Amino acid sequence: MTTTVEPERELVRRLLPFAVPALAIAAGAGAAIGGSGAAWSASIAIVIVALNFIAHAGSMAWAARISPMILMAVGLGGYVVRLAAFTVALLLLDQLPWFSPLAFIAAFAPATIALLALEMRLLAGRMQADLWYFPEKSWPERSSPERTA
Q1: How far apart, in Å, do the first and last CA atoms of the chain sit?
Q2: How far apart are CA 37 and CA 53, in angstroms?
Q3: Count of structural domains within the chain
Q4: Residue 147 lies in a domain
Q5: Which pLDDT tens digit goes with each residue over 39-79?
Q6: Residue 39: inside a domain
């Protein structure tokens, strides 16, 4: 059975609901350890991880519809753009008096690692085989005649 569901969008659909409990845990831990500034800093980190995931999945799904070359360019270029945006956001947030870079990183790093682990777990199972769809006409025609043995 083949399906036309884009795997990137399916990953977002399956993993995005985990952002709400992650946000609550990060905010609670930040508030317990460092007060309201740390809670907000940790919460912003979780929101940035979720937005990064959505941007990555959306750009990859868009690029996959165009061509493999565009997919590669968007994958590599998008990573650099999102990393630069994260760095700029961190530098701008650091100017705020209540912002805690330590709480931000303490929430950002584990959330990113957990997200990657969940992605790998989903894609290692049956989901990957069920979601990739290759129409027959997308394969290149053979340029040489088939050999008969």
Answers
A1: 32
A2: 25
A3: 1
A4: no
A5: 999 999 999 999 999 999 999 989 988 888 998 999 899 88
A6: yes
